[in-house]
What we know:
Elements: E1 3-10, H1 14-30, E2 37-44, H2 47-55, E3 63-69, E4 71-73, E5 76-77, H3 78-88, E6 93-98, E7 114-117, H4 122-138
Parallel strand pairs: 1-2, 1-3, 3-6, 6-7
Antiparallel strand pairs: 4-5
Amino acid sequence: xxxxxxxxxxxxxxxxxxxxxxxxxxxxxxxxxxxxxxxxxxxxxxxxxxxxxxxxxxxxxxxxxxxxxxxxxxxxxxxxxxxxxxxxxxxxxxxxxxxxxxxxxxxxxxxxxxxxxxxxxxxxxxxxxxxxxxxxxxx
Length: 139
C-alpha cells in the first residue's frame, strides 16, 4: 500500500487558486507512475470548507504541505488556518502566501514554515516548495 501525501491549497481568489492548482497538479502529474506514494490535492477558495476539512481529522494522519493565502476575509487570515492545521497535524509543512511582504514579519503569524510573496514568481516558488517536500518524504 502506497503512503499518502497531501497537498492543501487555500486561496480565495478564484483566478489565483486555479493558477496554483494547475501548477501543483502539473508537478504531481510529471512524477508519473514511478511514485512510491500517492498524492492527494485539496484546493479551496472558501476558508470555511478548508477549516471543516482540517477539523474533520481526515488530514491528521498524512504528511501534508499546505499553501495558504493570508487575506481570507471576515477577520480570518492564513495564520489562523495554519495554526489550526498544525494543531491537528504536527508534521504539516505550511507556506503562507501574501501580496504584502510585511505579513511575514508579524509575530502572531509565526506558525508558517515558509513565506511566499504573491507576485509573478509565486507559482514557481510554490512548485519548488512542493518538489522539495516530495523529495524529503521520499528519503
